[in-house]
Design a protein that fits this description.
The chain is an alpha+beta fold. The protein contains five helices and ten strands. Strands 1, 2, 3, 4, 5, 6, 7, 8, 9 and 10 form a ten-stranded mixed beta sheet that branches. The mean pLDDT is 95.
Length: 237
């Protein structure tokens, strides 16, 4: 039986989400380790990877369960008891065998969280602290990323992909309970693309962002810190 796992995780202490041969200290590595403890020898396929230090509130994975695991509520409870507290299974649902967590996804929503303040030990792993932000300019310039572009200038080098074209359907910035939230929804993202877009928003003006987007000029951009980035939701319809 094929099932989806919707999970949330604190990515601070993990080496990213994807399994690695050299280490079990990844989000999916931890989940697969626990599954094997309860005789589920299934590879966990995620909607996409997140880098080291990046968090998730709505990551979606799929697994194929053996016939003897039919009580999904019980399985959810057992996994949450056995997994480290930094990983939480929100729900497990049965899906059609043709479903694929990555290839069936239509849209991916990420949020980036900023706070205008000095850092503190209680939020430092989850928020990017800045002394000041020109919020009105940020709110205006984030709209420049909406549309279909070749994002080759907003990609970490060394990526092995067929195309750097992506469609960003919606971007916006808003304030919420003392935080500045940047929202990005697209058909997909390149490696470190969002962190590089946030870095551009914080350091480049509108004309420079447009030049970078249209591949007319490439500016050296430092990617925003990973701790402020969250995979929020995967949409399949």
């Amino acid at each position: 039986m094929r099932c989806t796992l919707t999970i949330a995780y604190n990515g601070t202490d993990f080496l990213g989400s994807q399994t690695q041969k050299s280490s079990k200290n990844t989000v999916l590595g931890q989940i697969e380790h626990v599954l094997k403890e309860i005789n589920i020898d299934s590879k966990v396929i995620a909607s996409g990877r997140t880098d080291r230090g990046v968090h998730a509130t709505g990551q979606v994975c799929h697994i194929d369960l053996p016939p003897f695991w039919s009580d999904l509520q019980k399985l959810t409870k057992i996994l949450n008891e056995m997994l480290p507290p930094s990983i939480h299974v929100k729900n497990i649902k049965a899906v059609d065998d043709s479903f694929h967590a990555r290839y069936s996804a239509k849209k991916r929503l990420y949020r980036y969280v900023i706070k205008e303040a000095q850092s503190n030990p209680f939020e430092d792993n989850f928020v990017t602290f800045l002394d000041s932000v020109d919020f009105e300019t940020l709110k205006k310039n984030i709209k420049l990323f909406q549309g279909e572009f070749d994002f080759k200038n907003f990609m970490k080098s060394g990526s092995d992909i067929k195309s750097t074209l992506r469609v960003i359907y919606r971007t916006f910035a808003y304030r919420h309970k003392g935080f500045i939230i940047l929202s990005f929804e697209a058909n997909g993202f390149l490696r470190s693309q969002i962190r590089l877009m946030v870095g551009a928003l914080l350091t480049l003006n509108a004309d420079e962002i447009i030049q970078q987007l249209t591949c007319k000029k490439k500016y050296k951009i430092k990617p925003a810190k990973s701790n402020g980035l969250y995979l929020a939701k995967i949409k399949y319809l």
